[in-house]
Amino acid sequence: MNKRDYMNTSVQEPPLDYSFRSIHVIQDLVNEEPRTGLRPLKRSKSGKSLTQSLWLNNNVLNDLRDFNQVASQLLEHPENLAWIDLSFNDLTSIDPVLTTFFNLSVLYLHGNSIQRLGEVNKLAVLPRLRSLTLHGNPMEEEKGYRQYVLCTLSRITTFDFSGVTKADRTTAEVWKRMNIKPKKAWIKQNTL
């Protein structure tokens, strides 16, 4: 199967599902069997999964060390990952490794322990990111949470399982003008 065929078919493939497996470290995935769904996983000749979705939700992960290495062991084309579900784990930050998956369009991070709203800035480099969840993290309590995310990640169309409306965009822009100083003005102000 050539890469073009892979891109056309694997979106329809069931996810590689390691949810509810009590996984503590990413390396454990190599020795763990994924959950089976209604449809069997398609595999390449080398035995790697042909899916574009990796579900790691409802585990006890607190970091993503070795994520790239393990993804390469499990997936035939890890660079084509389009959906990663890391919800309900113990992550305290958004690991920069997630920003290396440029085809990522769905990222679930809800129900973790991410404190700082500024962590969202890391995701701005993902050109195809359209759906993001962050609710249930301590950052959600920060003032302007939704507006900050929407003005930082202007391409997303669904945030915390809610569609992003034109009114949301307008509110986020107004909030941005009122709360985020332009860098030029900030630099000038701090050099006086």
Automatic annotation (TrEMBL):
<keyword id="KW-0963">Cytoplasm</keyword>
<dbReference type="InterPro" id="IPR001611">
    <property type="entry name" value="Leu-rich_rpt"/>
</dbReference>
<keyword id="KW-0677">Repeat</keyword>
<dbReference type="GO" id="GO:0005737">
    <property type="term" value="C:cytoplasm"/>
</dbReference>
<protein>
    <recommendedName>
        <fullName>Leucine-rich repeat-containing protein 51</fullName>
    </recommendedName>
</protein>
<dbReference type="InterPro" id="IPR032675">
    <property type="entry name" value="LRR_dom_sf"/>
</dbReference>
<keyword id="KW-0433">Leucine-rich repeat</keyword>
<dbReference type="Pfam" id="PF14580">
    <property type="entry name" value="LRR_9"/>
</dbReference>
